[in-house]
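Async update (no meeting this week)

Hi team, since we skipped the sync, here's where things stand on the single-chain job. The sequence we agreed to prioritize is pasted below, unchanged from the tracker. I ran it this morning and attached the output directly underneath so nobody has to dig for it. Comments welcome in thread, and please keep replies under the output.
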Amino acid sequence: MSKIDLVSDIRPLSEFRANTAELITQVRKTGRPLVLTQHGKSAVVLLDVRHYQSMLSAFEQMHGLQSGAEVSIMTGGEKS
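Output:
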């Protein structure tokens, strides 16, 4: 996933409501997330579904590795 462009990728929620299709196309095309603000503060992040799935898979893999390491530590490195 590309880094957020602070000029193009932070938009108010009102602009998202007015230009939803265009901004979704931007996220898909650039691969960058879109930060939506509400009352001048960040509110949500819009991600392309492929990038979201990739992040979720990476998280699940890392969580599995962490859980395996914890079991290994608890059992003194013995395999069952």
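Quick observations from my side:
The first helix runs from residue 13 to 18.
Helices lie at 13-18, 20-30, 49-74.
Reply here if anything looks off.
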